[in-house]
Amino acid sequence: MARGAPRSPDRDSLEAWGKAVGAALPRPAIIALEGDLGVGKTTLAKALCAGIGVPNLAAVTSPTFSLVQQYEAPRGPVVHVDLYRLKSDAELDALGWDELMASAAVLLVEWPERALHTLPHDVITITLSHDATDPMRRVLRVVSPTRR
């Protein structure tokens, strides 16, 4: 796994770091992307996809309305899920959540707090927040299974 998350990255640094992390991800992997609206979760998801090898990065957009998008990559699929609009476990079940988590894919989950009680112990959590001193920068916090 790529180490050394930038402390307060600008967009270019965030994208470069995400690409390095994506290239190092094992299969399968579940990445929980936490943070407020507009903080850069989808930007980071796109950077992770670039590192994983998704050829059509223009297709990597926020799945807020579709809920689930799948992208093909040389080492297997990447599934990008946005749980923001989900309100119940029944909606999570209807999404096929258990099957998604059991797949051999890389699973990128925006708004994972909607399903915290279902996430496995080996999820990698990346939390993004706005830097209080510079709104163009983000603060990253990464929690990997070995660092919990």
From TrEMBL:
<keyword id="KW-0479">Metal-binding</keyword>
<dbReference type="GO" id="GO:0005524">
    <property type="term" value="F:ATP binding"/>
</dbReference>
<dbReference type="Pfam" id="PF02367">
    <property type="entry name" value="TsaE"/>
</dbReference>
<keyword id="KW-0819">tRNA processing</keyword>
<keyword id="KW-0963">Cytoplasm</keyword>
<keyword id="KW-0460">Magnesium</keyword>
<protein>
    <recommendedName>
        <fullName>tRNA threonylcarbamoyladenosine biosynthesis protein TsaE</fullName>
    </recommendedName>
</protein>
<comment type="similarity">
    <text>Belongs to the TsaE family.</text>
</comment>
<dbReference type="GO" id="GO:0005737">
    <property type="term" value="C:cytoplasm"/>
</dbReference>
<keyword id="KW-0547">Nucleotide-binding</keyword>
<keyword id="KW-0067">ATP-binding</keyword>
<dbReference type="InterPro" id="IPR003442">
    <property type="entry name" value="T6A_TsaE"/>
</dbReference>
<dbReference type="GO" id="GO:0002949">
    <property type="term" value="P:tRNA threonylcarbamoyladenosine modification"/>
</dbReference>
<dbReference type="GO" id="GO:0046872">
    <property type="term" value="F:metal ion binding"/>
</dbReference>
<dbReference type="InterPro" id="IPR027417">
    <property type="entry name" value="P-loop_NTPase"/>
</dbReference>
